[in-house]
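pasting for ref
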Amino acid sequence: MNYDIKTTELASAGKQRIDWANRFMPVLDSIRERFQNERPLDGLRVAACLHVTTETANLMKTLKAGGAEAVVCASNPLSTQDDVAASLVVDEKIGVFAINGEDTETYYKHIDAALDMQPTITMDDGADLVSRLHSEEANPALLEQVVAGTEETTTGVIRLKSMATEGVLKYPIIAVNDARTKHFFDNRYGTGQSTLDGIIRATNLLIAGTTVVVAGYGWCGRGVANRARGLGANVIVTEVIPLKALEAVMDGFRVLPMQKAVQEAGLVITLTGDIHVLRQEHFKAMKDGAIIANSGHFNVEIDIPALEKLSVDKGKARPYVEVYTLGDGKKLYLIGEGRLVNLAAAEGHPASVMDMSFANQALCLEYIAQNRDNLENRVYDVPESIDETVAQLKLEAFGIEIDTLTAEQEKYLNSWEMGT
Protein backbone atom coordinates (compact mmCIF):
# COMPACT_ATOMS: atom_id res chain seq x y z
CA MET A 1 0.00 0.00 0.00
CA ASN A 2 1.40 3.37 -1.08
CA TYR A 3 0.61 6.60 0.74
CA ASP A 4 1.94 10.09 1.39
CA ILE A 5 0.67 11.79 4.56
CA LYS A 6 2.09 14.08 7.21
CA THR A 7 2.69 11.36 9.82
CA THR A 8 1.23 8.06 10.97
CA GLU A 9 1.62 9.09 14.61
CA LEU A 10 -1.75 10.89 14.58
CA ALA A 11 -3.71 7.72 13.77
CA SER A 12 -5.18 7.23 17.25
CA ALA A 13 -6.60 10.75 17.39
CA GLY A 14 -7.93 10.38 13.86
CA LYS A 15 -9.72 7.13 14.62
CA GLN A 16 -11.41 8.71 17.64
CA ARG A 17 -12.74 11.53 15.48
CA ILE A 18 -13.81 9.19 12.66
CA ASP A 19 -15.79 7.09 15.13
CA TRP A 20 -17.43 10.23 16.53
CA ALA A 21 -18.53 11.33 13.06
CA ASN A 22 -19.91 7.87 12.36
CA ARG A 23 -22.37 8.27 15.26
CA PHE A 24 -24.05 11.00 13.20
CA MET A 25 -24.00 9.08 9.92
CA PRO A 26 -26.63 6.35 10.42
CA VAL A 27 -27.64 6.13 6.75
CA LEU A 28 -24.10 5.48 5.54
CA ASP A 29 -23.58 3.09 8.45
CA SER A 30 -26.61 1.02 7.40
CA ILE A 31 -25.34 0.93 3.81
CA ARG A 32 -21.91 -0.18 5.04
CA GLU A 33 -23.50 -3.05 6.95
CA ARG A 34 -25.38 -4.19 3.83
CA PHE A 35 -22.31 -3.77 1.65
CA GLN A 36 -20.31 -5.93 4.06
CA ASN A 37 -22.76 -8.77 3.48
CA GLU A 38 -23.47 -8.32 -0.24
CA ARG A 39 -20.09 -7.04 -1.55
CA PRO A 40 -21.60 -5.17 -4.55
CA LEU A 41 -18.35 -3.35 -5.34
CA ASP A 42 -16.13 -6.42 -5.66
CA GLY A 43 -13.47 -5.93 -8.32
CA LEU A 44 -13.80 -2.14 -8.55
CA ARG A 45 -10.79 0.13 -8.09
CA VAL A 46 -11.85 3.57 -6.86
CA ALA A 47 -9.66 6.67 -6.99
CA ALA A 48 -11.33 9.39 -4.90
CA CYS A 49 -10.34 13.05 -4.93
CA LEU A 50 -12.24 14.38 -1.92
CA HIS A 51 -11.73 16.51 1.17
CA VAL A 52 -9.92 14.13 3.53
CA THR A 53 -12.16 14.56 6.58
CA THR A 54 -13.80 12.34 9.17
CA GLU A 55 -16.91 12.01 7.01
CA THR A 56 -14.89 11.04 3.94
CA ALA A 57 -13.12 8.42 6.05
CA ASN A 58 -16.45 6.77 6.79
CA LEU A 59 -17.29 6.78 3.09
CA MET A 60 -13.96 5.13 2.26
CA LYS A 61 -14.62 2.49 4.91
CA THR A 62 -18.00 1.84 3.29
CA LEU A 63 -16.48 1.37 -0.16
CA LYS A 64 -13.91 -1.03 1.26
CA ALA A 65 -16.67 -2.95 3.05
CA GLY A 66 -18.44 -3.27 -0.29
CA GLY A 67 -15.40 -4.94 -1.85
CA ALA A 68 -13.77 -2.00 -3.61
CA GLU A 69 -10.06 -1.28 -3.57
CA ALA A 70 -9.89 2.45 -2.83
CA VAL A 71 -7.39 5.27 -2.50
CA VAL A 72 -8.06 8.93 -1.72
CA CYS A 73 -6.25 12.19 -2.43
CA ALA A 74 -7.15 15.73 -1.35
CA SER A 75 -9.47 17.91 -3.42
CA ASN A 76 -8.17 21.05 -1.69
CA PRO A 77 -4.68 21.76 -0.30
CA LEU A 78 -6.04 23.11 2.99
CA SER A 79 -8.92 20.73 3.70
CA THR A 80 -7.00 17.62 4.78
CA GLN A 81 -7.32 16.54 8.40
CA ASP A 82 -3.91 14.97 8.95
CA ASP A 83 -5.04 12.77 11.83
CA VAL A 84 -7.84 11.33 9.69
CA ALA A 85 -5.39 10.61 6.88
CA ALA A 86 -3.18 8.78 9.39
CA SER A 87 -6.02 6.61 10.68
CA LEU A 88 -7.11 5.63 7.17
CA VAL A 89 -3.59 4.44 6.45
CA VAL A 90 -2.84 2.75 9.77
CA ASP A 91 -6.23 1.40 10.85
CA GLU A 92 -8.03 0.83 7.53
CA LYS A 93 -5.07 0.10 5.23
CA ILE A 94 -6.44 2.59 2.69
CA GLY A 95 -3.94 4.54 0.59
CA VAL A 96 -4.06 8.30 1.23
CA PHE A 97 -2.19 11.02 -0.64
CA ALA A 98 -2.91 14.24 1.23
CA ILE A 99 -1.09 16.65 3.55
CA ASN A 100 -2.68 19.76 4.99
CA GLY A 101 -1.05 22.85 3.50
CA GLU A 102 0.55 21.05 0.57
CA ASP A 103 1.67 23.28 -2.31
CA THR A 104 0.17 23.13 -5.80
CA GLU A 105 2.92 20.89 -7.15
CA THR A 106 2.38 18.36 -4.36
CA TYR A 107 -1.40 18.60 -4.80
CA TYR A 108 -1.18 17.43 -8.40
CA LYS A 109 1.53 14.90 -7.56
CA HIS A 110 -0.96 13.36 -5.13
CA ILE A 111 -3.67 13.24 -7.78
CA ASP A 112 -1.24 11.43 -10.08
CA ALA A 113 -0.38 9.02 -7.27
CA ALA A 114 -4.07 8.18 -6.84
CA LEU A 115 -4.38 7.57 -10.58
CA ASP A 116 -1.41 5.20 -10.44
CA MET A 117 -3.73 2.58 -8.95
CA GLN A 118 -5.38 2.40 -12.41
CA PRO A 119 -8.94 3.08 -11.26
CA THR A 120 -12.06 1.71 -12.86
CA ILE A 121 -14.17 4.32 -11.01
CA THR A 122 -13.36 7.94 -10.19
CA MET A 123 -14.96 9.91 -7.37
CA ASP A 124 -14.33 13.64 -7.59
CA ASP A 125 -15.03 16.87 -5.73
CA GLY A 126 -14.36 19.72 -8.16
CA ALA A 127 -13.36 17.58 -11.20
CA ASP A 128 -9.61 18.09 -10.79
CA LEU A 129 -8.99 14.35 -10.94
CA VAL A 130 -11.18 13.89 -14.02
CA SER A 131 -9.55 16.89 -15.67
CA ARG A 132 -6.11 15.50 -14.91
CA LEU A 133 -7.10 12.13 -16.34
CA HIS A 134 -8.24 13.82 -19.57
CA SER A 135 -5.14 16.02 -19.89
CA GLU A 136 -2.41 15.56 -22.48
CA GLU A 137 0.05 14.64 -19.72
CA ALA A 138 -2.01 11.64 -18.58
CA ASN A 139 -1.40 8.11 -19.75
CA PRO A 140 -4.19 7.30 -22.28
CA ALA A 141 -4.21 3.71 -21.05
CA LEU A 142 -5.47 4.91 -17.65
CA LEU A 143 -8.48 6.59 -19.22
CA GLU A 144 -9.42 3.45 -21.13
CA GLN A 145 -9.82 1.47 -17.90
CA VAL A 146 -12.32 3.88 -16.29
CA VAL A 147 -15.94 2.80 -16.70
CA ALA A 148 -17.65 5.70 -14.87
CA GLY A 149 -17.35 8.23 -12.08
CA THR A 150 -19.20 10.47 -9.66
CA GLU A 151 -18.95 14.20 -8.90
CA GLU A 152 -19.63 15.73 -5.48
CA THR A 153 -19.84 19.49 -5.97
CA THR A 154 -21.48 22.20 -8.09
CA THR A 155 -18.23 23.52 -9.58
CA GLY A 156 -17.24 20.03 -10.70
CA VAL A 157 -20.62 19.38 -12.32
CA ILE A 158 -20.32 22.65 -14.26
CA ARG A 159 -16.88 21.63 -15.54
CA LEU A 160 -17.99 18.12 -16.45
CA LYS A 161 -21.11 19.29 -18.30
CA SER A 162 -18.88 21.63 -20.28
CA MET A 163 -16.64 18.69 -21.17
CA ALA A 164 -19.67 16.64 -22.22
CA THR A 165 -21.03 19.50 -24.35
CA GLU A 166 -17.68 19.82 -26.12
CA GLY A 167 -17.57 16.06 -26.68
CA VAL A 168 -14.34 15.51 -24.75
CA LEU A 169 -15.74 13.60 -21.75
CA LYS A 170 -14.52 10.04 -22.19
CA TYR A 171 -16.68 8.24 -19.63
CA PRO A 172 -20.05 8.68 -17.86
CA ILE A 173 -20.33 10.69 -14.66
CA ILE A 174 -23.17 10.72 -12.13
CA ALA A 175 -23.70 14.21 -10.69
CA VAL A 176 -24.13 13.31 -7.02
CA ASN A 177 -24.16 17.03 -6.25
CA ASP A 178 -27.49 17.39 -8.04
CA ALA A 179 -29.31 14.79 -5.94
CA ARG A 180 -32.08 16.49 -4.01
CA THR A 181 -30.88 14.88 -0.79
CA LYS A 182 -27.48 16.42 -1.51
CA HIS A 183 -27.90 19.99 -2.68
CA PHE A 184 -31.08 20.72 -0.70
CA PHE A 185 -29.35 19.71 2.54
CA ASP A 186 -25.57 19.64 2.07
CA ASN A 187 -25.36 22.90 0.13
CA ARG A 188 -28.00 24.75 2.13
CA TYR A 189 -27.70 23.53 5.72
CA GLY A 190 -24.17 22.15 5.58
CA THR A 191 -22.54 25.09 3.81
CA GLY A 192 -24.73 27.55 5.67
CA GLN A 193 -23.56 26.39 9.10
CA SER A 194 -19.99 25.37 8.34
CA THR A 195 -19.12 28.56 6.45
CA LEU A 196 -20.01 30.72 9.42
CA ASP A 197 -18.33 28.21 11.73
CA GLY A 198 -15.06 28.64 9.81
CA ILE A 199 -15.32 32.43 9.83
CA ILE A 200 -16.08 32.59 13.54
CA ARG A 201 -13.26 30.18 14.44
CA ALA A 202 -10.78 32.15 12.36
CA THR A 203 -11.79 35.65 13.48
CA ASN A 204 -13.90 35.41 16.66
CA LEU A 205 -16.18 37.90 14.88
CA LEU A 206 -19.55 38.74 16.39
CA ILE A 207 -21.97 38.12 13.54
CA ALA A 208 -24.86 39.95 15.20
CA GLY A 209 -24.94 43.52 13.98
CA THR A 210 -22.38 42.87 11.22
CA THR A 211 -23.29 43.75 7.64
CA VAL A 212 -22.64 40.55 5.72
CA VAL A 213 -22.55 40.52 1.92
CA VAL A 214 -23.33 37.12 0.41
CA ALA A 215 -22.28 36.79 -3.23
CA GLY A 216 -24.55 34.32 -4.99
CA TYR A 217 -28.00 33.04 -4.03
CA GLY A 218 -27.78 29.45 -5.13
CA TRP A 219 -28.33 26.71 -2.56
CA CYS A 220 -25.06 27.52 -0.78
CA GLY A 221 -25.74 31.25 -0.78
CA ARG A 222 -29.28 30.69 0.53
CA GLY A 223 -27.88 28.66 3.38
CA VAL A 224 -25.25 31.21 4.38
CA ALA A 225 -27.63 34.17 4.06
CA ASN A 226 -30.23 32.52 6.27
CA ARG A 227 -27.76 31.32 8.89
CA ALA A 228 -26.14 34.77 9.03
CA ARG A 229 -29.54 36.40 9.46
CA GLY A 230 -30.33 33.90 12.19
CA LEU A 231 -27.21 35.07 14.05
CA GLY A 232 -28.35 38.68 13.82
CA ALA A 233 -26.43 39.90 10.75
CA ASN A 234 -27.66 42.56 8.36
CA VAL A 235 -27.48 40.56 5.14
CA ILE A 236 -27.06 41.93 1.61
CA VAL A 237 -27.20 39.54 -1.36
CA THR A 238 -25.51 40.13 -4.73
CA GLU A 239 -26.59 38.24 -7.85
CA VAL A 240 -26.31 38.20 -11.65
CA ILE A 241 -29.37 36.02 -12.31
CA PRO A 242 -32.67 37.95 -12.14
CA LEU A 243 -34.76 35.04 -10.86
CA LYS A 244 -32.37 34.33 -7.98
CA ALA A 245 -32.12 38.02 -7.15
CA LEU A 246 -35.90 38.22 -7.05
CA GLU A 247 -36.06 35.17 -4.80
CA ALA A 248 -33.59 36.82 -2.39
CA VAL A 249 -35.77 39.93 -2.31
CA MET A 250 -38.89 37.85 -1.64
CA ASP A 251 -37.01 36.05 1.14
CA GLY A 252 -36.50 39.41 2.82
CA PHE A 253 -32.91 40.27 1.90
CA ARG A 254 -31.54 43.47 0.45
CA VAL A 255 -30.13 42.97 -3.04
CA LEU A 256 -27.45 45.33 -4.37
CA PRO A 257 -24.73 45.35 -7.02
CA MET A 258 -21.40 44.27 -5.56
CA GLN A 259 -19.83 47.71 -6.00
CA LYS A 260 -22.47 49.24 -3.72
CA ALA A 261 -22.75 46.31 -1.33
CA VAL A 262 -19.06 46.17 -0.39
CA GLN A 263 -19.11 49.80 0.73
CA GLU A 264 -21.27 48.73 3.68
CA ALA A 265 -19.73 45.33 4.33
CA GLY A 266 -17.98 44.19 7.47
CA LEU A 267 -17.80 40.68 5.99
CA VAL A 268 -18.00 39.52 2.36
CA ILE A 269 -18.54 35.84 1.51
CA THR A 270 -18.37 34.50 -2.07
CA LEU A 271 -20.31 31.39 -3.06
CA THR A 272 -20.84 31.63 -6.83
CA GLY A 273 -18.58 29.06 -8.49
CA ASP A 274 -17.33 31.80 -10.84
CA ILE A 275 -14.07 33.69 -11.24
CA HIS A 276 -13.15 37.14 -9.86
CA VAL A 277 -16.40 37.89 -8.10
CA LEU A 278 -14.38 40.24 -5.91
CA ARG A 279 -12.05 42.40 -7.99
CA GLN A 280 -9.78 45.42 -7.74
CA GLU A 281 -12.63 47.95 -7.87
CA HIS A 282 -14.36 46.15 -5.01
CA PHE A 283 -11.27 46.08 -2.79
CA LYS A 284 -10.85 49.82 -3.33
CA ALA A 285 -14.47 50.42 -2.28
CA MET A 286 -14.34 48.33 0.91
CA LYS A 287 -14.19 49.81 4.39
CA ASP A 288 -11.10 49.62 6.55
CA GLY A 289 -11.17 46.32 8.46
CA ALA A 290 -13.47 44.44 6.08
CA ILE A 291 -13.12 40.66 6.21
CA ILE A 292 -13.17 38.54 3.04
CA ALA A 293 -13.99 34.82 2.86
CA ASN A 294 -14.79 32.33 0.11
CA SER A 295 -16.96 29.25 0.37
CA GLY A 296 -16.99 28.41 -3.33
CA HIS A 297 -14.91 25.44 -4.41
CA PHE A 298 -11.94 27.37 -5.86
CA ASN A 299 -10.18 30.45 -4.50
CA VAL A 300 -10.40 32.16 -7.91
CA GLU A 301 -13.69 33.74 -6.80
CA ILE A 302 -11.46 36.35 -5.14
CA ASP A 303 -8.92 38.09 -7.40
CA ILE A 304 -6.08 37.61 -4.93
CA PRO A 305 -3.34 38.75 -7.35
CA ALA A 306 -5.22 42.05 -7.73
CA LEU A 307 -5.47 42.37 -3.95
CA GLU A 308 -1.73 41.78 -3.62
CA LYS A 309 -1.01 44.33 -6.34
CA LEU A 310 -3.02 46.96 -4.46
CA SER A 311 -1.25 46.18 -1.18
CA VAL A 312 1.91 47.73 0.18
CA ASP A 313 2.21 45.17 2.95
CA LYS A 314 0.96 41.68 3.76
CA GLY A 315 1.13 39.89 7.09
CA LYS A 316 -0.48 37.43 9.46
CA ALA A 317 -3.25 38.77 11.70
CA ARG A 318 -4.28 35.43 13.24
CA PRO A 319 -3.97 31.78 12.29
CA TYR A 320 -5.82 31.42 8.96
CA VAL A 321 -6.17 35.22 8.60
CA GLU A 322 -3.90 37.35 6.40
CA VAL A 323 -3.94 41.16 6.58
CA TYR A 324 -3.41 43.22 3.43
CA THR A 325 -2.52 46.88 3.88
CA LEU A 326 -3.48 48.99 0.88
CA GLY A 327 -1.70 52.12 -0.29
CA ASP A 328 -4.13 54.41 1.54
CA GLY A 329 -3.51 52.61 4.83
CA LYS A 330 -6.75 50.63 4.74
CA LYS A 331 -6.51 47.04 5.99
CA LEU A 332 -8.45 44.12 4.50
CA TYR A 333 -8.47 40.63 6.01
CA LEU A 334 -8.55 37.42 3.95
CA ILE A 335 -9.43 34.10 5.60
CA GLY A 336 -7.84 30.80 4.62
CA GLU A 337 -6.00 32.09 1.55
CA GLY A 338 -9.38 32.52 -0.11
CA ARG A 339 -9.95 28.77 -0.15
CA LEU A 340 -13.05 26.99 1.13
CA VAL A 341 -13.37 28.69 4.49
CA ASN A 342 -15.42 25.94 6.10
CA LEU A 343 -12.59 23.46 5.51
CA ALA A 344 -9.59 25.79 5.58
CA ALA A 345 -10.51 27.20 9.00
CA ALA A 346 -12.93 24.61 10.41
CA GLU A 347 -14.01 20.98 9.93
CA GLY A 348 -16.36 21.24 6.97
CA HIS A 349 -19.98 20.15 6.98
CA PRO A 350 -21.56 18.46 10.01
CA ALA A 351 -21.46 14.68 9.75
CA SER A 352 -25.26 14.46 9.83
CA VAL A 353 -25.43 16.35 6.54
CA MET A 354 -22.57 14.47 4.87
CA ASP A 355 -24.38 11.27 5.84
CA MET A 356 -26.82 11.88 2.99
CA SER A 357 -24.25 13.13 0.48
CA PHE A 358 -21.97 10.15 0.98
CA ALA A 359 -24.87 7.70 1.10
CA ASN A 360 -25.64 8.95 -2.41
CA GLN A 361 -22.00 8.41 -3.38
CA ALA A 362 -21.96 4.83 -2.11
CA LEU A 363 -25.28 3.91 -3.73
CA CYS A 364 -24.26 5.53 -7.02
CA LEU A 365 -21.15 3.35 -7.11
CA GLU A 366 -23.37 0.32 -6.59
CA TYR A 367 -25.58 1.58 -9.44
CA ILE A 368 -22.52 1.95 -11.69
CA ALA A 369 -21.40 -1.58 -10.86
CA GLN A 370 -24.82 -2.88 -11.92
CA ASN A 371 -25.37 -0.66 -15.00
CA ARG A 372 -21.95 0.28 -16.35
CA ASP A 373 -22.52 -1.37 -19.73
CA ASN A 374 -25.59 0.78 -20.40
CA LEU A 375 -24.14 4.22 -19.61
CA GLU A 376 -23.07 6.77 -22.23
CA ASN A 377 -20.27 9.34 -21.99
CA ARG A 378 -22.33 12.14 -20.44
CA VAL A 379 -23.32 13.58 -17.06
CA TYR A 380 -26.24 11.75 -15.43
CA ASP A 381 -28.58 12.77 -12.65
CA VAL A 382 -28.70 10.55 -9.58
CA PRO A 383 -31.47 7.97 -10.15
CA GLU A 384 -34.63 9.08 -8.36
CA SER A 385 -34.87 5.73 -6.59
CA ILE A 386 -31.51 6.38 -4.89
CA ASP A 387 -32.59 9.87 -3.82
CA GLU A 388 -35.82 8.46 -2.36
CA THR A 389 -33.97 5.64 -0.60
CA VAL A 390 -31.56 8.06 1.09
CA ALA A 391 -34.44 10.32 2.21
CA GLN A 392 -36.37 7.35 3.61
CA LEU A 393 -33.35 5.99 5.46
CA LYS A 394 -32.67 9.42 6.97
CA LEU A 395 -36.28 9.71 8.17
CA GLU A 396 -36.02 6.26 9.76
CA ALA A 397 -32.80 7.31 11.49
CA PHE A 398 -34.66 10.30 12.93
CA GLY A 399 -37.49 8.00 14.05
CA ILE A 400 -39.97 9.82 11.81
CA GLU A 401 -42.89 8.07 10.13
CA ILE A 402 -44.86 9.46 7.18
CA ASP A 403 -48.09 8.56 5.42
CA THR A 404 -48.40 6.50 2.27
CA LEU A 405 -50.90 7.00 -0.54
CA THR A 406 -54.07 4.92 -0.53
CA ALA A 407 -54.97 2.93 -3.63
CA GLU A 408 -57.69 5.51 -4.34
CA GLN A 409 -55.17 8.37 -4.12
CA GLU A 410 -52.70 6.55 -6.38
CA LYS A 411 -55.43 6.05 -8.99
CA TYR A 412 -56.53 9.69 -8.79
CA LEU A 413 -52.99 11.03 -9.28
CA ASN A 414 -52.51 8.81 -12.34
CA SER A 415 -55.82 9.52 -14.07
CA TRP A 416 -57.27 12.41 -16.02
CA GLU A 417 -61.01 11.65 -15.99
CA MET A 418 -61.95 13.09 -12.59
CA GLY A 419 -62.35 16.88 -12.40
CA THR A 420 -64.34 19.24 -10.24
